[in-house]
Amino acid sequence: xxxxxxxxxxxxxxxxxxxxxxxxxxxxxxxxxxxxxxxxxxxxxxxxxxxxxxxxxxxxxxxxxxxxxxxxxxxxxxxxxxxxxxxxxxxxxxxxxxxxxxxxxxxxxxxxxxxxxxxxxxxxxxxxxxxxxxxxxxxxxxxxxxxxxxxxxxxxxxxxxxxxxxxxxxxxxxxxxxxxxxxxxxxxxxxxxxxxxxxxxxxxxxxxxxxxxxxxxxxxxxxxxxxxxxxxxxxxxxxxxxxxxxxxxxxxxxxxxxxxxxxxxxxxxxxxxxxxxxxxxxxxxxxxxxxxxxxxxxxxxxxxxxxxxxxxxxxxxxxxxxxxxxxxxxxxxxxxxxxxxxxxxxxxxxxxxxxxxxxxxxxxxxxxxxxxxxxxxxx
Length: 379
Fold this sequence. Notes:
The protein is mainly β and 379 residues long. It folds into two domains: 39-342, Methylamine Dehydrogenase, Chain H (7 Propeller), CATH 2.130.10.10; 349-379, no CATH class. Helices cover 8% and strands 48% of the residues. The protein is built from two helices and 32 strands. It has helices at 16-35, 367-377, and strands at residues 6-8, 11-13, 38-44, 49-54, 59-65, 70-75, 81-86, 91-96, 101-107, 112-117, 123-128, 133-138, 143-149, 156-159, 165-170, 173-174, 177-178, 181-186, 191-197, 202-207, 213-218, 224-228, 233-238, 247-249, 255-260, 265-270, 275-281, 288-293, 299-304, 313-318, 323-329, 335-342. The strands form nine sheets. It has a four-stranded antiparallel sheet, with no helix packed on it. Strands 6-7-8-9 form a four-stranded antiparallel sheet, with no helix packed on it. It has a four-stranded antiparallel sheet with strand order 10-11-12-13, with no helix packed on it. A hairpin with a 5-residue loop joins strand 28 (288-293) and strand 29 (299-304). The longest helix is centred in the first third of the chain and has 20 residues, at 16-35. The protein is globular and about 55 Å long. It starts with 5 loop residues before the first strand and ends with a helix.
């Protein structure tokens, strides 16, 4: 007989039969609470803006004007800033997530596309397609402190979990063809230290949490490549995955989700076997581009840029059942890159009493830590 008290966000159960009766409700409440702690920032290419989705309600709660042709956003580790590339204005906009306003605009190279932030939040690596360079931004000053040449058609970039390497997918158009390699940059020196042959048109890239492997999507209806980052060699080519730009890996590293604009699906890859283990069909009118997971891995957000027979949407997938559970109409026809940011306190009132617990992704253990965060991150 279970006699101790079980607590989960206000649920208190004292007896075995009570536990059996209410545990499902408590689990649902816990999941809802986790969802409430994040916001999805989505680049809206046609309206030159980034719109913000409350992941607890899937409602759009803000629309932020940025530069021309926004493509991909990325969130700093502390959740206070979102950096987004503006391909048409050759800039990166910096959004303050406490106010959802642009606080800085940074000139970079020509046609910036992908970007990634180092785990310590100190630098942003920005791929400039037409300049064939990677701009390095110092986030303390929001200025470009380095420019790394890459003449192989740079398209997207990812930074390893330990922050020591940046991997650039070279899938852009160059020398009358499309790129076929991944460049490896030493972030201490900002020099290219390796070039990995993969295949035609590599695009999105994501890492397992231990940094041991990088997974690279293929925009040309081809496979996904698994790279061993210790040797910088391709160790697996995963067939039957018709990929595009979108790839995301779960926080435990066991699964990768890859979008396909060709067969209108999301493929699920088991990283232990490097095989596709599930295919999630989307509605026939969808055009899946980018994907992003919530920090608890329970939801996958998919951007669907418009095609001739549909408007832009976001699909929300329940990763426990691999089914679409919500569709969000977007402010324009062109939703593209997605970044998930933790909900952060905006004032001391947000921290009052047990309010600090709402910001679990920031790890506050008491109200004082929450207030300290507000003092340090708000003006």
